[in-house]
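Recap quiz, item 2
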Amino acid sequence: MSPSITLGQYIPGESSIHRLNPRFKIMVLLLLLVLLFTLNTYQGLLGLFLLVLAAYAIARIPARYVVRGLRPILYIVIFALVIYLFFTKGGVVLYRLGPVTIESEGALLGFFVITRLVILILASLLITLTTTPLSLTHGMEYFMKPLQRFGLPTSEVAMIMAIALRFIPTLLEESSRLMRAQVSRGADFERGSIFRRARTLAPLIVPLFVSAFRRADELALAMEARGYRVGALRTRMHEEKVSSLDWAALILLLVLLASAFVFQF
Amino acid sequence: MASPDRKINFWTKAAMIGAVYALLTVAAAPISYGVVQVRIAEALTVLPYFTPAAVPGLFVGCLIANMVGGFGILDIVFGSLATLVSAFLVTRIRVKYLVPLPPVVINAIVVGAVLHYVLELPFYLTFLWVGAGQLVACYGLGLPLLFVLDKRRDIFD
């Protein structure tokens, strides 16, 4: 656990992608998801891949962020590839080593599925790279709002999300202070297996919760003192505006989706 | 200190649980999203046993964590919903050894189904892939945490 982690992947910028309304970003991403799973040709996937890369270029995201964003899926990609290459049979034999063969069917299907996964990750990543977690929260709150009718506390959930985001750095500092305190008493967080290291986390977690809940009490008191009431109607200081660019992005995706259906890409 | 409004306190407590969850996920990132996804933060799924504030708390923590890394939109939607459902189920369980069960089973089913759909691999493979990681996190780390916290129930009041 190093204190130098940065939360969120947001890269500040002024590009047109950055300025899209978070609500529209979410809608576009969902449409792209539908599009991704309607495409069933390599040409279609390649086209969408290029489109996503173009969006990265417009947002001026350095290539190293793309590579870093794909690292989390490395193992699942290897896992899937191994299964496809060695266990899916059919087509021409591409490679033979004793009784083990790699056949063309498995390779084609495997690479198709992985390309699709990569596009999915890159598209989602672009949203988190160009939107602050807080405005993404506001965007999500908008879509959760209908659930209020069923008595679900959506605005409270959005509020605690904002509070949680705000307190992550504070609690991080707190936890590294606790860690130093434990280390000075002879605790060792650096060595040992993951289980051993996890066990050393217990004397960290308890005081961390004690201090976190104390902050929760103080915060609740402060909010109450400022007139916050659970369930009361709240307005926002910064309203997110909708521009013609937002509609353009949405329409582009709808057109792509329609043409994917019509032309069977 | 004067005691704050219970209702507001419920939500601020939930927010702090969410922050700790997100913090643990991000701080332990390499094993969180990597090989058989052992998310250390998943040990916190035992918290609803102590306080219902952990239900929205874990949901929000999971949302934030998934926004920061992982599988993107699918994880944000389905992973977080799975956490919400299992956290709710945990509040109903009174047998300690069964507490880590919902986060293992529900996540393995939901996330396993998503991976099955995305990767087009057999469901039992993706189910086991997710379930193995959750089993380590929830039983290997969560259950010991449950026993530690059980001695300090006072901090949840």
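Chain B touches chain A through 64 residues (CB under 8 Å).
Chain B has one domain: 4-156.
End of item.
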